[in-house]
Amino acid sequence: MAAACLCSREPCNRPPSTMEQEPMCSTTMRQRIAMHFNLFIRTSKANGSCAAKKLWSSTSPRCLRICKQQRLNFDSRVSPSKTENFLATASCSSDSQRSQRSERKRLGKALVATRPLAAGDVVLVDKPFLVVSNPDSLERWVNRWDCYFEMMKLAQGGKPELLEAFEAMDDGGPEVVASLSTAALDTLQLMWRSAGSQALLVPEAKKEKDKLKVAGGFARWQTNQHEFPALAARPRRAMYWLAPKVAHSCDPNVGWEDPAEDGMVELRALRDIAPQEVLGVNYMDADFLLLSRKVRQERLLAERKFHCVCDRCLEKSLDEIPVVVDPAIPSASPSPRDFKCGSSATFLPFLRSLQDHLRAGKIEACLAALKILQLDASSGDDLIQLAEALGRELQGDASSDAFNSLD
């Protein structure tokens, strides 16, 4: 099937590789920036929005690729907006919708399961509606602002859906916007230098307001973008409509598959998921989940500008429960053989908690619990063997060999 551009609403027979050309030369970029600046200072605030009085006479930006979107078939209890209907592509592999948006007091808007899901099930499929090249230079930010002006052009032509969808995306909050103010200022200064004397006509208060607006646009990209398959060894980033709405979780129940060549991504269940359970995915690398709660929160705040409120972070992890030492108890390290008969009545709830954490994939918490007991397990497989051995020990049928191999 041929690709399609939202700007024309007609099939585009060009191969995908031709929809993003080589980077612009410096002269062309200066001309484009000057044109942007002319458009930027000729905007009005009619109806409370920034509308350009002058449209581009050039072709579509070379950094931009706009993909056709299909209608999102949400659960009947959800009434998606016109923008969602137009842009989102969360078509599932079955007739029944597997997820829906929900208002959760702790998370705000989140996606929840509408029916039971088994590990490995496809929860939803999403497709990007904006793609930009992402070089390691100021050009990456110019590309994003270039993209914004193309959306303004479409809005002026009577097709505001794309701009409305972009503006509706979460910007991550004031801290994220503030963190990108330097990039916004650098981009604007590049425009001002290219515009020459015209920049002198802009009041300082207007420049500050413009900086915040540009930073807000960059923040929407930074908060919602995902990696996209590179083109001619050039990295790219894509804006998805539904994918960013899956909340972060340090105890994820879903995970994203790597995007296909066309950017299509699948969200799959990592374990069984109950109806109305919030969908959570790990925003960070896999090793992040092995860190302590304190370190995880610090990294998320520094790199993502938010506090995680998943169940794992709200509950006191086993590695954070203080160990109370009774001076009357010998300081010798306990062994699994010590947890028998009378002591099993107090240890059994702990073991059940350990098994619950194990089933939920909370390997870090289980290993921390074993450190409290000074038992040895270096991996998930060792942990499973140890939990099974502890279970047999409490039932009184464990062999000494089973524990000798784990001591």
UniProtKB/TrEMBL annotation:
One of the GO BP terms on file: methylation
Protein origin, superkingdom: Eukaryota
Record GO terms (molecular function): histone H4K20 methyltransferase activity
tRNA-binding recorded as keyword: no
Gene3D superfamilies named in the record: SET domain
Keyword S-adenosyl-L-methionine: yes
UniProtKB keywords: Methyltransferase, S-adenosyl-L-methionine, Transferase
Any Pfam family the entry gives: SET
InterPro entries documented for this protein: SET_dom (IPR001214), SET_dom_sf (IPR046341)
Residue stretches making up the SET domain: 108-283
Name of the featured protein: SET domain-containing protein
